[in-house]
Amino acid sequence: MKSLETTGGRVKWYAVYTSARAEKKVAERLNSIGVETYCPTREVIRQWSDRKVKVQEVLFKSYVFVRLKENELFRVFEVPGVVRFLYWLGKPAIIRDEEIYVIQTWLEGDEMEEVEVSGLEPGAELHLKKGIWKDQRAIVQEVGKNGVKLVLPQLGFVLKAKLSQLFYDTPH
User: Fold this and answer.
1) Coil, strand, or helix at residue 143?
2) Which run of H or of E encompasses 58?
3) Could you say which DSSP state residue 75 is in?
4) Which of 63, 91, 107, 115 is the most buried (most CB within 10 A)?
5) How far is CA 110 from the centre of its chain?
6) For 79-128, what is each residue's pLDDT tens digit?
7) If we measure between CA atoms, which residue out of 140, 128, 126 comes closest to residue 165?
8) What is the pTM of this model?
9) Where do runs of H (alpha helix) occur along the chain?
10) Within 10 A of 35 (CB to CB), how many other CB atoms are there?
11) What are the Cα distances from residue 108, in Å, to 75, 89, 101?
């Protein structure tokens, strides 16, 4: 991936919706025609019948981020597998550089120490105190045996976190 510095404010990040399970291939094809892309992935272990395998799993299913000037947006449709842009208020949604940076930093982050978590209920409001999401307000959407789904309203997305990675306090 190329540098995330904005040149003169004219080049912006956009989210492109792709065909199912075509994210990596679309990103590769877009890069080959000179379009800067970011397709965040994470390494996961998959259990097959006879073995465990490490695979790179796409973080945002059916989405690839592209960085273009507004007058070049049509270029993404030169690539098979691109369906459409993600729209906001009738225009292709602009993703801020800071949001891409947060995703990158989170994916590259160090493991955090384990903490004891109890008493979390759906609807509870939390204030995250450490890590890449520091100082963010979060609302518990779902609590599972090994993880929690948090809504981060300021950033507009849902975060799945392992309980051992979550540092928080409840607002007073």
Assistant:
1) strand
2) strand 52-58
3) G
4) 63
5) 17
6) 999 999 999 999 999 999 988 988 888 788 644 434 445 677 888 888 87
7) 128
8) 0.64
9) 23-32, 97-108
10) 20
11) 30, 32, 10
Distance CA 103, CA 143 (A): 22
What helix, strand, coil percent values describe the chain, rounded to 5?
A: 20, 40, 40
Distance CA(95)–CA(102), nearest Å, equals 12
d(CA 127, CA 134): 8
Which residue is listed with tokens 């679309």?
26
Residues ≥6 apart with Cβ < 8 Å to 154: 136, 137
Place of tokens 């510095």: 5
CB count within 10 Å of CB 83 equals: 14
- CA gap 6, 58 in Å, rounded: 25
Give the CA radius of gyration of the chain. Answer: 18
Q: Report the SS3 class of residue 40.
A: coil
Report d(CA 165, CA 112) in Å as an integer. Answer: 6
Long-range contacts, 118-125 (Cβ 8 Å, 24+): 120/148, 124/170, 125/170, 125/171
The pLDDT score that the predictor gives to residue 98 is: 87
